[in-house]
Amino acid sequence: MTSSANDASESLAAVTYASPKRYGETSAVEQSAFKPQSDPPVIANFDSSHLTVGAGVAIFHIATARVVVCYHSTDGYWFLPKGRRDAGEDSGTGAEREGFEESGYRNRLLPLPLKHRQPQPHNPSAPPSASSSPPFVAEPVWTQFAPVSRSTQYILFWYVAETLPPDLEASLSARAGEQGMAYQVPPKYPDGLTLAARIAMEPEGYTPVRHAGTGVDEEEALYESYLLPVDEAMEKLGRSVMADVVRRGWEGICLRREMEVGG
Length: 263
Description:
19% strand, 7 helices
């Protein structure tokens, strides 16, 4: 490990384990009184003309323990970026794109040690003793169902993402200028890249770039976005699944870091 990676590891340890408890307070992440529960399974059927699929995202700047939260400047409420995926678009990609359009922050899904029920791709060449489950996955942390009308259903997948390292941010912004399209699909988070090594890609004091004017309609032009400390973001999101997306996301980041250091 290089000296910069060592420095990054220490930096991450600080933001991971620093707690308001040291100052006589209680962390909202640790002591949140509201933790939504999953509903009982349901049976429902919708054809393509009666179903809308969307995705949302909690975008973390890991080095400073902050997360992107949006604010509606006229209606006065806080929320995480979300929206309908485009036709033919994967839900995860839709989450990244909606995150950029509604908040102005480029982002990519962050694989985390999540409990989930999805099978792993079949690999007939793997030895029988090999583990078939990678430790980190980029699966939705919550899924919500909501009626759009009396006959139309909305399904929303919530993901966890990170802001981009400076070099990647610069290259995508340059490509956007060349192509005249603000949104550019980012590459996936690299396999084997530890969180400590990821933080080492940023100079000390780096703040992720927020792009202005990324909304695609008049409604999204009313959105403001802020990088807030995790506890403050949860307080502003209130008793909601969105607050729990932030909680689960940050806890997953902390657990991944522990697993990487321990491994």
